[in-house]
Structures are given as structure tokens and as C-alpha cells.
Amino acid sequence: MKLALRNLIALTTLVSSCASLGSSPVSMDELRQGLDRESLTFTDRTVEEIAGLQAELPRPFRLAIAPPREVVSSQFNFYTGQGGTGSGSADVWTSKEREVIQAWNERFRERGWLVDLVILPYSLVVPGVADADLREGSTYLERVRVAAARERADAVLVIQSNSAAYSEFTPWAVLDLTLVGAMIFDAHRVHAATVMEGLLFDTRNEYLYLSASGEASMKDRTPAFMISQTERRLLERSRLAALRSLAERLNERVIALDS
User: How many domains does the chain have?
Assistant: First the structure.
């Protein structure tokens, strides 16, 4: 009896920990609202100065991709692997995300508007690095533009994202009361979603050419013991799909600039 009770307590603790990443449903609208609340700090200019900025982007042009930014309001920071609020600062693209972005190079070159694409190293953008080209207290956008200039890029794409994952019980979750049931029966539904927004800036004068967004959602069923792993896997897949969706919108918006 004591052994069975200890097993039940251990199982309950394990199942609870497996579901710790996401516990409440999050809609696409909530993710979009989280992105809308996130802001970039721009160079301090008057309205007249902003209105006087001129588009200087050549065709084709060299494009720099800034390190990703997970919004401050994000339920789960994909890059740190932690719940709660994100940092709102630069992170590092995963190897799979870099593969997706690198594939843009050939695709956009075929469309005729890209010369080359470069992913900016995190070390060129990370805050706090001593740099003679940057004044004290410089903004994230200023650091990104300086890094893009060093890579001889004509424009820089800043990508912000908001991701969330959560799980829910199905009637079969009663099988979690047995060790075998918690390990092999897909008694939980897992959902993950990502919304990304890209802003294309002129490297030289911070002229904003366009904004584009991409989003994706994924779902699957899983045993209780695999909830955390499944959430992580679906989050990764949703981010890759959102990047591909963003590429579609970006291509459309850039082509529209010339029409």
C-alpha cells in the first residue's frame, strides 16, 4: 500500500512538471497583441526630420538579418527555454532557423531584388560591448544598423517574435493514474503557435521601407511523460513555419515597392 501511494505521488509530481511550459490556451490574437505592444526605440528625430528621410535602397540590394527578438510579453521565451517574460533583447538564431533564412538568399535573388543576404553575428549587436562607433546608451536599432553597415548591407531586417505553447487534457487522461498509461497513451493535446513581424530599415538613415508578418500554429497529441518535449518540438516547428510565411509576405512587399 505504501509503495503504491509513493508511486502515485511520484507520478502526480512528474505529470505536473511535464505540463509546466504551457497551462492556459493562448490565441493568435493574443500573440499579435503581444507583438503590437512591443516597441523599438528609434533615433530621436522631429516629425519634420522623419518626413524628410529619403528612400535610398538600390535594386538589387544586400540585406542583413538582425538577431531575433522574443517580445517582453511572451509567455515562453523559445531561446532561453524559460517561462514567464522574455527579455525583449537580441537572441541567437537556432541552426534550423538559420537554414530557413539562408534559403531566402537564392529565392530572393531569383526574384531579382537581392544581391546577397547575411545573418548578423550576435556579437556585433549584443548590448554592453565597447564600441567606438556607438555612443553610450545607444538603442538596439542603432547597434543593428552599425552591425549591418560593417557587413556592407544596404538594409537590415529586424524580426520580432511571440511564441506560446500549452497542453490540455482529453478524457483519456484518466489513464495517467497508471505509470504505463502516462508513458504510452496520447491523452493530452498540445498546441504551439508563433507570430513574427519583420521591419525593413535602411542601414544609412533608418528609413522604414516596410513591415511584414508571418504566423503558424501546430498541434499534436502526446502522453503525459512527453508533454514538455512535445511542446518544445511544436514550438520549433511553428517558428520555422512562421519564418517561411514571413518570407512570402516580405517578398510580396518588396516587389510592391517598385510598383
Answer: 1
